[in-house]
Amino acid sequence: MKNAEFHVDAEKCIGCGQCLDVCPGNMVGGDVLRMEEGRPVMTDPTKFGWQGCWRCQHCLAVCPTGAISVLGISPDQVSGKPDPVIREELPKLMQYRRTCRAFRKDNVDSAVIDEILAAVSAVPTGGNNQRLEFSVVYSRDAMRSVYRAVRGNKEQMNLFDTEGEEDFSALRIYDAPHLFIAHKPAGERFRDGDYTEVNLATAYFELLANAYGLGTVISTYSAELLRKNEAAMNVLQIPKGHVFMTVVGFGYPRYEYARGISKTRKIHKII
Q1: Which long-range contacts (C-beta less than 8 Å, at least 24 apart) are formed by 225-231?
Q2: What residues have CB less than 8 Å from 215, skipping those under 6 apart?
């Protein structure tokens, strides 16, 4: 996109200036948004980056009257505030979710996977760089292609069974029929930030998948296994130079848990 397409509905705008106050480009010393005749304008809609438009849509999101459209997106195209009940339900979900090691064979509906991915796309990235990419195995048939690629590597052959291709447990994701991998191009600077971003996306996906009633298993071992296998990386469409730390196997769980669990952590309170 070469133009931020920043538009203000003059009939709705109340001139509150909140969009100027939350604009990251303004906060780091840029002159991205300013007020003219009581309404916000974008100084240079073709300027993106650190002191230009960050493509973050903060201006659209904060506007109390829905007067702002940006990047071709209008307020009626995005979601509203979540129901306050989420404050009760999200902690329950975090206590309820378990690592799944027994999956059903049937595929998850692709529309459900699409819905989860659309939500995960909102995961935060440093400076809103939006360079994250997702590789997602949508079916057992596609997973079989990944399995064959890894089994075809003679150095890794001893890790796998030879009884057929109906059980992918040797991939260390317990026969999950689907796979999610967040990856991104490795930068020359801030490499720790790259790893943080892919891990955040993984955590967002894993929790959302559980919210949809799916089972998940996170594996760093599988990530290492796949990362060293060029054929598997090609099947997964992960370009050379991209980094990822973990993979998530997911699918319908064979068993449903009846309740959550209780864990404790040592907490250092700085008061």
Answers
A1: 225/150, 225/156, 225/159, 225/171, 225/172, 226/146, 226/150, 226/181, 228/156, 229/149, 229/150, 229/153, 229/156, 231/149, 231/150, 231/152, 231/153
A2: 100, 102, 103, 176, 250, 251, 252, 253, 254
Q: Report if residue 271 sits inside a domain.
A: no
Angstrom distances, CA of residue 178 to CA of 19, 109, 270? 41, 11, 42
Domain boundary among 42, 77, 112: 77
| Segments forming the whole domain that contains residue 217 | 86-251
Contact between 135 and 237 (Cβ < 8 Å)? yes
Number of domains in the chain: 2
Q: Are residues 195 and 224 in the same domain?
A: yes
Question: pLDDT-based confidence at 157, cuts 50/70/90?
Answer: very low
Task: Average the pLDDT over 254-258 and give the result.
Answer: 94
Q: What local confidence, expressed as pLDDT, does residue 53 receive?
A: 96
Model pTM?
0.89
CA angle 195, 249, 265 (to 5 degrees): 60
Structure tokens belonging to residue 5? 């397409």
Which range, of 26-30, 186-190, 214-218, averages the lowest pLDDT?
Answer: 186-190
